[in-house]
Design brief:
Elements: H1 2-9, H2 15-25, H3 27-36, H4 38-41, E1 47-49, H5 57-60, E2 63-66, E3 69-72, E4 76-78, E5 86-88, E6 93-95, H6 104-108, H7 116-143, H8 145-165, H9 169-197, H10 203-228, H11 231-240, H12 248-251, H13 256-261, H14 265-278, H15 285-299, H16 317-342, H17 351-376, H18 379-402, H19 406-419
Antiparallel strand pairs: 1-6, 2-3, 4-5
Helix pairs in contact: 1-15, 2-9, 3-9, 3-10, 7-8, 7-9, 8-9, 8-11, 10-17, 18-19
Main location: membrane
Membrane topology: Multi-pass membrane protein
GO molecular function: transmembrane transporter activity
């Protein structure tokens, strides 16, 4: 493709591309923090019915055995000293939180009959992610990568301030839906921009390095939650920090590939001039003119004028089969990954340390994958990873039902984290 020759002429890759690439990859942190932040903001919070200061808790709160340990019932009280008759909590709950820790569960009493609301908040957030994925790809094709990226990058800061000021569960859920919506738009826009920034031969490498930033974001999520602890300030921090990228307003150009595809050749030329000037290169006039001419010629070819949609993925047997297989793989791995990550507080051990170790293992896995795929291709490693992950997660699920000792509980945690 002529436009790929133009991309190659702008550096191999150049200084401008590498600086912009790193800045764009840093946006992965914001996506990871908000996608995974509910692991701590909505962490499992031990509690029991609130009783008077002069009351012996053992006389009024039932005990039950779980994982080999005795725990207080979080939702029932004995009635009038009876050990058989029970009633629901009458005066709220007492939560067991360390230091400055606060969760949405302790904030809005999302326990007992309202326990489902914590999971519902996460579900609604990812509904926003789903809608954002469907909407912003089309918007970035229509209006350009730059405006969509900048809008989705800075709007979370406004949403974060609103969530901090409005202490209401319904408002929180609605704002989190919008947050998931725009953050998925951010992820889609900056990834497309990264891909279009480099020549075709670099695409696999830039995609691999980008997921390494995700692993870094996972580890930072644990550190941020450990330091801040209060869910309100965690949410404020992971949204306001998007403003650290304010410099992209001046540094980020529109994708020259998109401009050429839209026949905005003057603006595309201005972007190319900006890049080559930064890289101390001469403007590739011949290559640029050739790219423009071929683009105009392609416009006149009737066979190239067709607009493709998602439906075209299912028109042909081979493409349909591959699309369905990949969709199933993404669905199952996402369920497993986020299911374990967001419920890390249900596993034995320190939730902050477990989460950090999980991110560290991800980092190691991503780096290893670079070498494994170069040696064995894509299909065999993919099958091997899926098989190993499935075995470990199934084993963790079976063990969790029978883990009545600390050793078995720790083994369950290890299998779940490695399997993830």
């Amino acid at each position: 493709m002529a436009v790929d020759n133009l991309a190659s002429a702008l550096g191999s890759p150049g200084k401008f591309q590498m600086i912009l690439y790193i800045l764009l990859c840093c946006n992965t942190f914001f996506v990871a923090w908000n996608h995974l932040g509910m692991a701590f903001m909505g962490a499992k919070t031990k509690h029991h019915c609130r009783v008077g200061n002069t009351t012996d808790i053992n006389e009024v709160v039932p005990l039950f055995k779980k994982g080999g340990k005795k725990e207080w019932d979080g939702c029932k009280l004995f009635v009038n000293g009876s050990t058989k008759e029970k009633q629901s909590c009458q005066n709220g709950w007492t939560y067991y939180l360390k230091g400055r820790e606060q969760t949405i569960i302790s904030e809005w009493d999302l326990v007992c009959d309202d326990a489902y609301k914590a999971s519902l908040a996460t579900t609604i957030y990812f509904c926003g992610v789903l809608v954002g994925g469907l909407v912003f790809g089309t918007l970035s094709d229509k209006f350009g990568r730059r405006p969509v990226l900048l809008f989705c990058l800075y709007s979370p800061s406004v949403l974060g301030i609103l969530m901090f000021l409005i202490r209401d569960y319904v408002a929180f859920v609605i704002l989190r839906f919008i947050l998931g919506f725009v953050l998925q738009g951010l992820q889609a826009a900056f990834y497309i921009t990264i891909v279009e920034l480099f020549a075709l031969k670099y695409r696999s490498k830039v995609g691999t390095v980008q997921v390494i930033f995700w692993a870094g974001g996972v580890m930072l999520t644990a550190l941020i939650a450990f330091v801040i602890q209060d869910w309100k300030y965690i949410q404020l921090f992971i949204t306001l920090t998007t403003l650290l990228q304010i410099g992209l307003i001046w540094f980020l150009p529109e994708s020259f590939r998109w401009l050429i595809a839209q026949k905005r050749f003057d603006k595309a030329e201005a972007v190319v001039i900006k890049i080559v000037k930064f890289n101390n290169l001469e403007f590739p006039q011949d290559i640029f003119d050739d790219t423009v001419e071929k683009n105009k010629a392609d416009e006149k070819t009737p066979t190239d004028s067709k607009k493709y949609t998602i439906i075209d993925l299912f028109r042909f047997r081979v493409l349909r089969k591959r699309s369905v297989i990949l969709a199933c793989i993404w669905f199952s791995t996402s369920i497993g990954y986020y299911g374990i990550s967001l419920n890390i507080s249900s596993l034995a051990g320190n939730k902050y340390l477990n989460f950090f170790i999980g991110g560290l293992l991800e980092l190691m896995a991503y780096i290893l994958t670079v070498f494994v795929t170069e040696r064995f291709g894509r299909r065999k490693p993919l099958c091997a990873y899926l098989l190993m992950g499935s075995i470990m997660n199934i084993a963790a699920g079976v063990l969790s039902e029978k883990a009545d000792s600390e050793a078995l509980q720790n083994l369950t945690t290890a299998l779940a984290i490695i399997g993830k």
